[in-house]
Amino acid sequence: FGMFDAMGFDGMMDLGGDQMAGMFGAMEGADIMAMGSERAFDAMMDMGMGTAMEFMGGDQMAGMLGAMEGDMLGQLGGDMLFDAAMNMGAADMMMMPPDAAFGMFDTMGQGAVMDLPPDAMAGMFGAMEGDMFASMGGEFMADALGTMGIESALEFMPPEAMVDMFGAMDPTNMAELGAGAMFDAAAGLPPAEMAMMPPEAAFGMFETMGTDMLFDLPPDAMAGMFGAMEGDMLGQIGGDVLFDAAATMSPTDFMVMPPEAAAGMLDTMGAGAVLDLPVDAMAGMVGAMDTSQILELPADAALDMFNAMGADTAVAGMDADSLAGIVGAIE
């Protein structure tokens, strides 16, 4: 980079293609990206993709393509971008800005992207943002995940990008992927990311998996899935299923759930069923709720819950605001 800095861009452009590509090949991808779109495009057009790929690694190629704008990527053409992508790994792809990754996809086309190795495909999608997945459509998202495999997606993609992919799908798309794929995704994604999934996507995963497979998930994964859902969805699942799931959860598991979901579980199950939970699960469920929601509990139900869990369990499983809430509901 020091040599490039000393020569200046114009001086570098006077070099032959091999020398220019060799200089870029010795630089960091981030430094190449910092050149800006016009310089990156001019350099690539001057070198040619063949020469660039001969001397530049995936990191440098990602830096150069990542600097460009969509119309420039379009001028390079889908075939040239496909050849470049074949030489880039997931980490290379994910250093690209979202607009550049989507520009590569848009120029190459769906068919060519599906021919990429799983890690390159996962990296390209991993660099994108939520609204981009929605524009590609749920059917293609399911096809792409099925082609690269859930295992590759979990290994190479950021969890938030996977959540966005599922958010673009409808239940029919998820059914095409199959119950096993939904289970692997739910078990492999961080529960806190699962809880941020669009409600319809989380409920679609549950419907595709089915109840029997649900209970093979770790408790925190179930908490994340339920945490993404709305009250009417929890109502459709039913109190009995929610009780069996909640009975396996610890206070730590419940803490990944938004307060509305924890309150929705309690409402669907009913206070009587909550009293039959293990005391640490009861404390976790109530502790995940907002103070205002706890204060809405009937006084007798709040008293029964507090007496059932005991002071020690309540203190261990609930924070100060939750404790104040349940005491306030009793009073």
Low-confidence stretches: none
Q: Helical region count?
A: 31
Helix content class: over 70%
Total beta strand runs: 0
**Assembly of the depicted chains:** single chain
Radius of gyration: 26 Å
SS-derived structural category: mainly alpha
What's the overall average pLDDT, rounded?
91
Major sheet size, sense and barrel closure: none
Query: Which geometry do the CA atoms define?
Result: elongated
Query: What proportion of the residues form beta strands (DSSP E)?
Result: under 5%
Q: Termini distance?
A: 70 Å
Describe this structure in words.
The protein is built from 31 helices and no strands. It is 77% helix and 0% strand. α17 crosses α20 and α28 crosses α30 (299-317). It has 331 residues and is mostly helical. It has helices at 2-13, 17-25, 29-33, 37-47, 49-55, 58-66, 70-76, 78-86, 90-93, 98-108, 110-114, 118-126, 130-136, 138-148, 150-156, 159-167, 171-177, 179-188, 191-194, 199-209, 211-214, 219-227, 231-237, 239-246, 251-254, 259-269, 271-274, 279-287, 291-295, 299-317, 320-330. The model has no long low-confidence stretch (mean pLDDT 91). It starts with a helix and ends with a helix.
Please write out the topology.
Blueprint: H1 2-13, H2 17-25, H3 29-33, H4 37-47, H5 49-55, H6 58-66, H7 70-76, H8 78-86, H9 90-93, H10 98-108, H11 110-114, H12 118-126, H13 130-136, H14 138-148, H15 150-156, H16 159-167, H17 171-177, H18 179-188, H19 191-194, H20 199-209, H21 211-214, H22 219-227, H23 231-237, H24 239-246, H25 251-254, H26 259-269, H27 271-274, H28 279-287, H29 291-295, H30 299-317, H31 320-330
Helix pairs in contact: 2-5, 7-10, 13-16, 14-17, 17-20, 18-20, 23-26, 28-30, 30-31
